[in-house]
Amino acid sequence: MSESDSAKPTQQSQGSQGAQGARGASSSPKPVDLQALVKTVQFAWFVGHVLALVGSFFYLLFSLRIFKSPSFPKFWYREAYVAIIFTFSIILNQTYRSKPLTVQALLRDDNCHYIFLAFLWLFSRPSFFTLPPFLVFSLFHVLTYLRSYLLPALGHGSSSPLSAQIGHFVTGYNDRFMMLAASIECLQFVRLLFRVFTFRKGTLVQFIIYVGFMKLRYDNSMFTRTIVKQYEVRIDSLLANPAVPPVVRNGWISFKNSLAQVFGGHRAAN
C-alpha cells in the first residue's frame, strides 16, 4: 500500500484532542486522484473508521432487538472494536516508526490511551455504553476525510454545498461532541464503580484499568478536566441543600478526596 504526504494520518490524533486536528485538516481540501487515493495508508484508516461506525450501528440494532439473532450482536460488537484498534494501530505506526518509542511519549499520547482501552472492551462482555466516545472520534474523522480528500477526488470542491455543510458541522460541533465523549467516559467510571460495589463478576479488573485510563485522560485532556469540574460543581450545589443529611455530604467529600489522591487536585474540607 503506497503512502502520500497529503494523505497520511500522522497529523491527526484520534483522541479527544485529535478531533481538533481533524477539524483543522478539513479547512483546505486538495484535489486528489481517486485511484491514487485508495492506495494510501490514510484511505485504509478512513475505511477502518467507516467499519467502526457500521459495526456499532448494527450492534445497536441487534441490542435493541430490532433484529433478532443470538450471535450477531457479539459479532458486530467485536467487528467495531477490531476496526477501532486497526485505525489506532495505523496512527501509532505512523507516529513512532521514525522517532524513539518511550514510556513518557506513550503516556502523553491519546492514541495509546484509546487503543489500550479498545483492547479492554474488545475482550470484555459487550456493552454499547463503551462505544460512543469512539463513535464520536470516528464520525468526525470520516467527515473530515470526506471533505478533505474523497469529495475533491469525486469532483466536489470546497465550494460545493455538501462540502460546505460538512465543514460547517465539523467546525460548529467538534468541541460539543468532544465534551459529550468526555462526559460519557466519566459516566462509564461511575457505572464501573457501581458494578464493583454490587460485586459484578470481572468488573474489578476493568475498574482498576479504567481508573488508570481516566487518570491519563484527566492529565492530558482539557475536555475531561472541564467535565469533571462541571460534575463536581453540580453535585456540590445539590448537596449544599440543608435538607441533605450531613452523612451524605461527608461521604461525598471523602469520595472527592479519594479521587483527588488518584487524579490530582485539591482536597475538599469537611
TrEMBL record:
Cite the record's Polar residues compositional bias ranges.
1-10
Q: Name the principal localization, coarsely classed.
A: membrane
Disulfide bond: present as a keyword of the record?
A: no
- Top-level taxon in the UniProt lineage: Eukaryota
Isomerase in keyword set:
no
Here the segments flagged for biased composition (Low complexity) are 11-28
Q: Name one Pfam family in it.
A: TMEM33_Pom33
Kindly give the InterPro entries that the UniProt entry links to this protein.
Answer: PER33/POM33_regulator, TMEM33/Pom33
Q: Which GO terms describe its cellular component?
A: endoplasmic reticulum; membrane
Annotated region (Disordered), positions in chain: 1-28
Protein topology in the membrane: Multi-pass membrane protein
Which terms under GO biological process does the entry name?
endoplasmic reticulum tubular network organization; membrane organization
Which keywords does UniProt give here?
Answer: Membrane, Transmembrane, Transmembrane helix
Where is it localised? Membrane
> For this UniProt entry, which segments traverse the membrane?
43-64, 76-94, 114-140
Family named by the database record: Belongs to the PER33/POM33 family.
What name has this protein been given in UniProt?
ARAD1D21450p
Q: Which organism is it from?
A: Blastobotrys adeninivorans (Yeast)
